[in-house]
Amino acid sequence: MRSLLLAAAGLAAAVHVCGVVLDARDLTVYGQLATLVLLAVYAATGSGGARWALVAGLAALATAVVVDAVRHRADLAWFTYGPLDRAALDAWIRQILDRQIGLSAGTLAAAACFAVAVIWLPPVRRRWLAVTGVAVAVGLVAVTAVRIWGSLDLVHEFWVPALAGLVAAAVVALAGVRGGAGRVGAAGALLFAVPVMEAVVDAAGTAESLRPLDPPGMHMSIAVSFAPSDVDYTLAGLALAVLLGVALLAVGATRGRRAV
Question: Model pTM?
Answer without folding.
Answer: 0.85
